[in-house]
Write a structure and sequence with these properties.
heterodimer; A: alpha/beta; Rossmann fold; 5-stranded parallel β-sheet; globular; B: alpha/beta; 2 domains; 12 helices; 36% helix
């Protein structure tokens, strides 16, 4: 697919490749900024799972989606949220515990859910989004909408029973869903030798679900694979399982020293930097302009968050039920 | 001209079935998903004919995948459906706990106010010879979760009216149906749209000397006990909470404050139960008015057996409740 005929050009008219790069850079800088805050006096009042290094998966998957398409995310979900259209300023406010955050600043990183943009939530439960994504796909099917669901999960979640329940049911019902395994090579505090048997993308075969393996650090490859799976889902042909291989630059959570891996391993892994790869293919002047725009957006987001009131005890009681 | 509403003798399962038909007829967003709800017509026959009437997309048989089955309700509800998820036996909800407690119940909280119109129907209790994994009353577990409403109909009228209200509610509602009542008949008012409000208790029998709060299968046994005790000169007020989360504390505690005595009767085990909660509330809020210690009438703290005679030997009967009331004096 060439950039000029891609459906993913943003409303600002930027060509797709540049627009994707800009989105990846936004994800990268957003997380670098909250990571810095995490260690500051005005820190992040909750856990932070960074996806730095994995930008091409979220952006490649979400860039071409419609606002009415639906995603479910994970505990490592900032990129998914931003790529699906979450406002960086309200995201920043949520992570910094501010009243203007998406959940009044009381949910934090793992509980960002914005149904109006099709984001049914990051999730504190590994695999917790998989049944919800399956249900959303059923809901779209019942309503005869041609929207689709992308279900993000990590390779750790592929060991959860719900992964297999969902593949089986989605295949039986030909649900409009893409199961997108973001394999960042580490499961919490360990390498995959403790967690994953065989190759995840091959597990589709047992359920008659096409399995696709893709370089998750190559934005064009991810885009092509997801676009094909989305087209298949929109056409009513059922689910696809995609495994995108990428690399988690940091430990399981901010502050984790990641003693489970060697410096050499990290160096090799980081060499595959998806943002740098995308940058190389673009006009340096356009990259510089995009980077400047991202810096301004991140600075504004941080300013918005820090200028917002810290959430007080009044937010405890909000939004539990419609009626008493 | 009579102003009385006509009633019709209706089995408990028929009340549920009528509610499902009426709500699916009224609103095409309402869907029913569950194991064997469609082609087989449900394990008790109460969804028979629904798939022919509403199609196999809206009445959908699922694989035996309880966690994802509940996810159909959460995700479907999030994108515009008003799903009803059938839990064949309440015990199977243990395979769905993440979706109910971690996901559905917190949806409005996380999304800062978005509705999740999910109805969960679960069949509870030792009403058959189904054994210790198909007979449990675990309702209290769900009453301790912010974001969940829990109702427990004790008769066909409430089974119908509470289910209809649950389907129209914009929050997750767990409707706990009682297996032991399925084939019992009750008078059901013949009105166009029978809605029983969530959160409102039913005073089944007025009385002055003692308050008996009973749920599920224990309600009619409590009424029978009250009739026996009336002959002995003891005036018993019988309250069916109907909604066990949130409890109608005005009605329940108002009665306790007036009578000064409280007996609770339930099919669930005693520890950390709805009955325990009601006793605690009474002690906290009606201590000065109490004339005797509140007591719980429950099965002994043992598992549910399979043979029917043993099942009945385990659960409280009307006599058990009557004895507990007499001991208050």
């Amino acid at each position: 697919m060439s950039d000029s005929d891609s459906p993913g050009a943003r409303p600002d008219g930027a060509p797709s490749a540049l627009s994707r790069y800009r989105a990846m850079q936004l994800c990268r800088r957003f997380e670098e900024t909250v990571h810095e805050r995490f260690h500051s006096d005005e820190g992040v009042p909750g856990p932070l799972h960074l996806a730095i290094g994995q930008e091409a998966v979220a952006v490649g998957a979400c860039h071409d989606l419609r606002p009415t398409d639906v995603i479910t995310s994970t505990h490592r979900g900032h990129h998914h949220c931003l790529a699906k259209g979450a406002r960086p300023d309200r995201m920043m406010a949520e992570l910094l515990g501010r009243r203007t955050g998406y959940s009044h600043g009381r949910g934090g990183s793992m509980h960002v859910a914005i149904p109006e943009i099709g984001l049914l939530g990051t999730n504190g439960i590994v695999g917790g989004g998989i049944p919800i994504a399956t249900g959303a796909a059923y809901g779209l099917q019942v309503q005869e909408r041609d929207d689709v669901v992308i279900c993000f999960f990590g390779e750790g979640a592929s060991a959860e029973g719900v992964f297999h329940e969902a593949l089986n049911l989605a295949a039986l019902w030909k649900l409009p869903i893409v199961f997108l395994c973001e394999n960042n090579q580490y499961v919490e505090l360990a390498a995959q030798d403790l967690h994953v048997a065989g190759e995840i993308w091959k597990r589709g075969a047992g359920y008659d679900v096409p399995g696709v393996h893709v370089d998750g650090n190559d934005i064009d490859a991810v885009t092509a694979a997801v676009d094909a799976a989305v087209a298949r889902a929109r056409a009513g042909e059922g689910p696809t399982l995609i495994e995108a291989l990428t690399f988690r630059w940091f430990g399981h959570y901010a502050g984790d020293k990641a003693a489970f891996r060697t410096d050499e391993e990290v160096e090799t892994g980081r060499a595959g930097d998806p943002v740098a790869r995308a940058r190389q293919a673009l006009d340096p002047a356009e990259v510089a302009a995009a980077d400047a725009a991202v810096e301004a957006e991140i600075a504004a987001a941080l300013e918005f968050a820090l200028a917002s009131p810290i959430s007080g005890a009044d937010v405890l009681y909000l939004d539990h039920q419609a009626t008493a | 001209m009579s102003t009385e509403t006509a009633v019709k003798a209706t089995k408990y399962w028929q009340g549920i079935s009528q509610a499902l038909v009426e709500e699916m007829e009224r609103d095409e967003r309402v869907v029913l998903v569950g194991e064997d709800v469609g082609r087989a017509g449900g394990p008790y026959g109460l969804t028979r004919g629904l798939q022919d009437r509403f199609g196999d997309t809206r009445v959908r048989d699922t694989p035996i995948s309880e966690a994802v089955l509940m996810g159909l309700g959460v995700g479907g509800g999030a994108v515009g459906l008003r799903p009803i998820v059938e839990v064949m036996f309440f015990d199977f909800a243990m395979l769905m706990m993440d979706q109910i407690v971690n996901q559905a119940a917190k949806y409005r909280y996380f999304t800062a106010g978005h509705a999740l119109p999910l109805t969960i129907r679960a069949m509870c209790g030792a009403g058959g010879h189904n054994g210790a994994q198909h007979s449990q009353n675990i309702e209290a577990w769900f009453c301790a979760v912010p974001g969940l409403k829990v109702v427990m109909p004790s008769n066909a009228r409430d089974a119908k009216g509470l289910l209809k209200s649950a389907v129209r509610d914009d929050d997750p509602v767990l409707v706990i149906e009682t297996l032991g009542l399925l084939r019992d008949k009750f008078d059901v008012p013949q009105v166009d749209d029978l809605l029983i409000p969530i959160g409102v208790a039913d005073v089944r029998r007025a009385g002055d000397d003692v308050t008996v709060v009973a749920t599920g299968r224990m309600v009619d046994r409590a009424v029978a006990a009250a009739e026996t005790l009336a002959e002995e000169g003891i005036s018993v007020e019988v309250i069916d909470p109907r909604t066990i989360a949130p409890l109608d504390t005005d009605t329940i505690l108002g009665s306790v404050a007036r009578t000064g005595r409280l007996v609770v009767a339930q099919e669930a085990l005693a520890p950390c139960s709805v009955g325990s909660e009601i006793c605690a509330l009474a002690v906290e809020q009606c201590f000065a008015e109490l004339k005797a210690a509140p007591v719980r009438v429950t099965p002994p703290f043992v598992n549910v057996p399979t043979p029917l005679p043993l099942v009945e030997a385990r659960v409280p009967q009307a006599d058990t409740i009557a004895d507990a009331v007499r001991a208050q004096f």
